[in-house]
Amino acid sequence: MVRTSGSTEMLRVAIPKGALFDESVDALARAGYDVGGLRDPGRSLVIRGGEVEYIIAKPTDVPVYVAYGAVDAAIAGRDVLEEAALEIVEMVDLRFGACRFVVAEPVSATRSAEELYRHLGQIRVATKYPRITERHFATRGMQVEIIKLAGNIEIAPLIGIADWIVDITATGTTLRENDLRVVEEVMQSTARFVANPAALATKPDRVTDMAERLSRAVAAREGA
Amino acid sequence: MRPQTPRGFRDVLLDEAAEREAVASTLVGVFDAWGYAPVETPVVESYEVISAAGPAGGEAAPFRLLDSDGELLALRPDMTLPIARVAATRLADDPGPLRVRYLAPVFREHASFRGQARQFTQAGVELIGASGPAADAEVVALAAEALRAFRLTGFTIAIGSVEVLRAFVEAARMPERWGVAVLQAAHARNLPEVQRLVREPGVPAEVAAGLVGALRTRGGLGAIESCREALGACGRSEAVAGVRETFAILDALGYAEEVVVDFGTVRSFGYYTGMVLQVYAPGMGLPVGGGGRYDRLLGTFERPLPAAGFAIGLERLAIALSESGAMPRVRRLDALVGGADAAACFKAAAALRAAGWRVRLACGAIGLDLVRVAERVEAFEAIEAADGVLFRLDRAGGRADVLADPPGSPPSERFSGRRRP
Fold first, then answer.
1. Closest CA to B125 of B369, B309, B248, B331
2. C-alpha angle with apex B185: B109 to A23, nearest 5 degrees?
3. Is B391 helix (H, G, I), strand (E, B) or coil?
4. In this predicted model, what pLDDT tens digit does every residue of A154-186 receive, in sequence order?
5. In 3D, which of B265, B228, B266 has the Cα closest to residue B245?
6. A144 vs chain B: nearest CA distance in angstroms?
7. From CA B242, how far away is CA B293, in angstroms rounded?
8. Which long-range contacts (CB under 8 A, 24 or more apart) does A22-25 make?
9. Whole-structure pTM value
10. Which terminus of chain B has a lower count of CB atoms within 10 Å, N or C?
11. By three-state DSSP, how is residue B13 classified?
12. How does pLDDT run across A11-43, given as a tens digit for each residue?
């Protein structure tokens, strides 16, 4: 359940595949890490680069790997961390992968969801992120019924499964193409460098060193 | 029906159970040598008592039950709350300080598919009615001694202090909402969020630098010194005095190798007021134990007293010990005693036990059958009682020789760890 590689010399770092992958590799390269193997991983999911072992993971699994100590550190989106709600140390805001969580509704809705809410006392919300959605509406004091879907959230209102959706958007293009407009913002997200608390306590130098090098690389880029 | 245990609960059997018992007795032995007295409390508490600590956070919600009177009960999620209740009620007249230890199963509700146990065993201590650096150092030193007793090397005890972050927040003189947000972010160990909050208008530069610096600093006396300077710039250098003195005591006693100061260490329970500690073992991604000072908890039970303590998770410690090959040896069977006559078997076994042997009965089994069973249960010897004497059997089931009367010392003492010679 909680065993790690045991090696105190090797640092294990999880890298999310998908949207954040290329920029994660670039960030590590700018911080001076050997990422040659990550540039062209083929089908391998475990890649050695100098004193670091990289694990390529599904983004939503990254917080789980970190919390259970399967990896010492990782790069993960704030959104995924928030949804996982696990005990993880967030060390550096890497600034890339910016997106925001929004509540959206169909532009052409004949009756606004607010009006439905007045009459029915409840709104149905489709999302991939039930925990973030639940917390958001609890803070707003609104009663919602959350429907968890695995993908293509933006079509949920069109096919009548939900009145609203909570989803991430970087540019808003997908929302516009599906005839949706933003009702309100839930939270903003960027990529973060995170660490396992035990790794931070037992091999602080290696983890802190990576955090500082990444942090300097971010600062240098923003200064440029 | 195919019976199974509910999710997050499991059986502990035979070898594992014996090893756990050995781990537990080592811990209990250390706590006892420091003069801590045992206490036992009910598994079930009134929900009111359990919720006295305030909202514990969704991850560690207590297991709730409704009894036939309609009263809301909870299974204890830790031992600190029940012991605080006992100290505030039945032991209220004890002049103190109270030093108690426990070894007890605790229960926590967890969402599905997180791979987390809903029952686990904690071995720990509480020191009630004492405060100050000497009391804090006693708690940390005892945690270190508990792990040293297994000859486990490379473990780390991270100590921090809730007061340090509070002092920075107070020095900022910002609205309360801001302070709560900072402490929450620090608690969630979200450094980028703390950095964002300290950039808000009105936050003094020395507080901003100090807060971020404190959350990043870890180490020994040097780390404490740099934190003291940062606090000094905010006019609050006294906030780190306690940790400083506690660490100085531990350093003088030779614990500096194992103890590291980390002001980012914040425990997930809301009731800690001063020093907090987390215990990490090599190769383990989750802490094997933790605790801290909770000076306000007993006040909620109307007996305000300072208190501190820690607990070690037996299951996690067992994993750490087995990973590092430091698991205490469990004593093997010295002999399996057989023979055609049951009464002779019992008598032979009694004589062996009197000589300190650990023996198991196998009345009726003789010769090769007896040897086969002895090998399967990993007993050192197969001994057959016949004609008023004890025969030691050889591997083929033949009578190798006759045991001396009274029998000599048990083979587990002579050949520790080795197979049947």
1. B309
2. 100
3. strand
4. 889 888 889 899 998 888 888 888 889 998 999
5. B228
6. 20
7. 12
8. A23/A94, A23/A96, A23/A97, A23/A191, A24/A75, A24/A94, A24/A191
9. 0.86
10. N
11. coil
12. 999 999 999 999 999 999 999 999 999 998 888
- In terms of C-beta density within 10 A (0-12 exposed, 13-18 middle, 19 or more buried), how is residue A139 classed? exposed
Q: What is the largest CA-CA distance in chain A?
A: 62
Is B80 strand, coil or helix? helix
Both structure tokens of B145? 């001694």
Q: Phi then psi for B106, rounded to 5 degrees?
A: -125, 165
Compute the nearest-CA separation of B175 from chain A (Å): 20
Residue B169 contacts residue B182 (beta carbons within 8 Å): yes
Distance from CA of A141 to the nearest CA of B (A): 19
List Cβ neighbours of A178 (8 Å cut-off, separation of 6 or more).
A154, A155, A158
pLDDT tens for each residue of B320-338? 999 888 999 888 999 999 9
A3: phi then psi, degrees, rounded to nearest 5: -80, 145
Q: In the Cβ-directed half-sphere of B400, how many Cα atoms lie within 13 Å? A: 14
Nearest Cβ partner for A6 among B189, B191, B283: B283
Higher pLDDT, B114 or A8: B114
Instruction: For residue B412, give both structure tokens.
Output: 């587990």
Alpha-carbon gap, residue B249 to B241, rounded angstroms: 12
B24, B146 Cβ separation under 8 angstroms = no
User: Is B285 close to A198, i.e. CB distance below 8 A?
Assistant: yes
Nearest CB to A68 within list B195, B283, B285: B285
* Count of CA atoms in the C-beta half-sphere (13 A) of A105: 16
- Show residues of chain B in contact with A87, CB under 8 Å: 59, 189, 268
Query: How confident is the model at residue A111, as a pLDDT?
Result: 66
Q: What is the 3-state secondary structure (H, E, C) of A189-206?
A: ECEEEEECHHHHHHCHHH
Q: Which residue has the tokens 């800690």?
A: B272
- Neighbouring CB atoms inside 10 A of B78's CB total 22
CA B154 to chain centre: 17
Grouping H, G, I as helix, E, B as strand and the rest as coil, residue B306 is coil
Inter-chain touch A202–B154, beta carbons under 8 Å: yes
Q: How many CB pairs under 8 A join A and B?
A: 80
Q: How large is the angle between the packed helices B176-187 and B191-198, nearest 10 degrees?
A: 160
Q: Is A69 an interface residue toward B (CB < 8 Å)?
A: yes
Residue of B nearest to A9 (CA): B283
**CA–CA dist B303, B193 (Å, integer):** 38
Starting at the edge strand found earlier in the chain, the sheet holding B156-161 runs: B37-38, B98-107, B119-128, B307-313, B289-293, B275-280, B156-161, B259-262, B218-219
AA identity, residue B257: E
Which letter does DSSP use for residue B255 in this model? -
Burial class (CB in 10 A: 0-12, 13-18, 19+), A216: middle
Quickly list H helices, A45-112.
62-67, 78-84
Instruction: Say how far apart CA B69 and CA B131 lie, in whole Å.
Output: 41
Cα torsion angle, B10, B14, B16, B20, sign: positive
**Per DSSP, what are the bridge partners of residue B304?**
none
Chain B residues within 8 A of A187 when measuring between CB atoms: none
Phi and psi for B362 in degrees, rounded to 5? -145, 55
- Which of A148, A145, A99, A110 is CA-nearest to residue A127? A148
Q: What is the dihedral of CA A126, A127, A129, A133, to 10 degrees?
A: -50
